[in-house]
Amino acid sequence: MPRDILLSILDLARWAPSGDNTQPWRFEIVCDSHIAIHGFDTREYVLYDFEGHASHMAHGALLETLRLAATRFGLQSAWTLRPNCPDNAPIYDVTLTPAEIPEDPLVCHIKTRCVQRRPMRAAPLRPEQKKALVSAVGNDYSVFFFESFAEKLTVARLLWQNARLRLTCPEAYPVHLAAIEWNARYSADRIPDQAIGVDPATARLMRWVMKSWKRVEYFNRYLGGTIIPRIQLDFIPALACAAHILLRPERALSGILDHVAAGMALQRLWLTADSHGLHLQPEMTPVIFRWYVQAGRQISLAPEINDGAIRLAGQFQHLSASRPNDGYAFFCRIGQSRAPRSRSLRKDLRDLMLE
Questions:
Q1: Which of the four pLDDT bands, split at 50, 70 and 90, describes residue 223?
Q2: Backbone angles phi, psi at 76, to 5 degrees
Q3: 3-state class of 352 per DSSP?
Q4: What pairing do the DSSP bridges indicate for beta strands 243-249 and 186-187?
Q5: Chain-wide mean pLDDT for the chain?
Q6: Which residues have CB under 8 Å from 15's CB, separation 6+?
Q7: Which residues pair with 28 in a beta bridge?
Q8: Chain-centre distance of CA 52, in angstroms?
Q9: What's the confidence (pLDDT) of residue 225?
Q10: What domains are there in the chain, each with its CATH number?
Q11: Which of 108, 114, 213, 272 gives 136 a disulfide partner, CB atoms 3.0 to 4.6 angstroms apart?
Q12: Beta strand pairing status for 330-335 and 186-187?
């Protein structure tokens, strides 16, 4: 098939979500029916990419987005994980074949899907919306809704404690510093500060404080430096939404293929939400910290961070009535709101291509 069709498919696929807009993939057109996705992960320098799983889920979201994009051109896609590739550099071989299939209705939501970090309306989800979200993820996952005020308040308290760990963890500081593009409404490879979800005065203070870890420590210890960001970024948004959603696999995730499949499911969930006029914000840090706890791995050299993560994992399990070994794939809040005026964009396709 013509190269311009392959480029058009990839130009849509690149809008898949990834943690902090890292876009952990590069594209290679092998021949007119074969695309190789060269994945990578950020585990060596990003605390939140535990064993590369967050990146693997992003790879899954990309593969699902590519599958949907291909239907616009009457093509179906199939992919395999290339044998003998390391987990930190997987290669996914995608083949495209003509098929008499209509364009998937989710295709038109690929570019409009985005993160809403600001408060949303608390209007409950309608039964047909919940049914569509459950149907979107397939039979391998259960969808739990936390939608009463009491449940949202419990989640708000959980996120309040989680945010304290996140903002006082020394190992998380360089991740946060690298993830934000300041004085920006849009960003091609990071999160623009105007999309973070804080007011302009708090954003200016955050930028000044985050210039050094010593400043962060001083503000946290003596001036309650985490309080305002936790209120604006975690507590208020947790209450100002229709519900929180937990995507739980029927069996615990294990290895790259399970996490890729989970990423495919979460992208279908997210696009389906957009198709129903809903916005979504991932709340993945509690899930990722729980992965550390389940594996018996330390998050930080600071003992209080690890102890706090263990307590947080127990509270999360109690909230969801789950067992310590049950798997979690995705946690988010959802609701109706105006479209965000600031958002992450993507790198140009030419910057993502391998020759």
A1: confident
A2: -115, 145
A3: helix
A4: unpaired
A5: 96
A6: 65, 110, 111, 113, 346
A7: 36
A8: 13
A9: 83
A10: 3-112+345-352 (3.40.109.10), 127-340 (3.40.109)
A11: 272
A12: unpaired
Q: What is the pLDDT of residue 221?
A: 85
Helix/strand/coil for 324: coil
Strand partners, 84: none
Cβ count within 10 A of residue 204? 14
Q: What is the mean pLDDT of residues 56-70?
A: 98
Locus of tokens 């300041």: 182
Question: Rounded distance, CA 116 to CA 195, Å?
Answer: 8
Residues 6+ apart with CB under 8 A from 148: none
Number of DSSP helices (H) and strands (E) in the chain, helices first: 13, 12
Eight-state DSSP code of residue 298: -
Of 232, 205, 201, whose CA–CA distance to 119 is shortest?
232
Amino acid at 315: Q
pTM equals 0.96
Q: Are 334 and 241 in contact (CB under 8 A)?
A: yes
Helix (H, G, I), strand (E, B) or coil at 334: strand
The Cβ-side half-sphere exposure at 65, using a 13 Å CA radius, reads 29
Structure tokens given for 22 = 């890292």
For 287, the token pair is 């899930």
Cα dist from 231 to 202, 228, 282, whole Å? 11, 5, 17
Both tokens of 209, joined, read 């404080």
Helix 303-320 vs helix 149-168: crossing angle, to nearest 10: 160
- Torsion 145-159-193-304 (CA) sign: negative
> If phi over 0 gives left and psi between -120 and 50 gives alpha, with beta otherwise, what is residue 169?
beta
DSSP 212-255: -HHHHHHHHHHS-TTHHHHIIIIIHHHHSSSEEEEEEESS---H
Answer yes or no: are the C-beta atoms of 292 and 51 closer than 8 Å: no
